[in-house]
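User: Sequence recovery, please. Input:
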């Protein structure tokens, strides 16, 4: 479910390394 991925992406402060990894994946998906 893509909505779950977006939800995690908005809370990177909960896990910095995981958050940054998700953020980079999110950016890659958006391109």
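Assistant: Recovered sequence (31 residues):
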């Amino acid at each position: 479910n893509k909505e779950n991925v977006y939800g995690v992406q908005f809370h990177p402060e909960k896990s910095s390394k995981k958050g940054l990894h998700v953020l980079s994946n999110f950016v890659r998906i958006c391109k």
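The CA atoms of residues 15 and 21 lie 10 Å apart.
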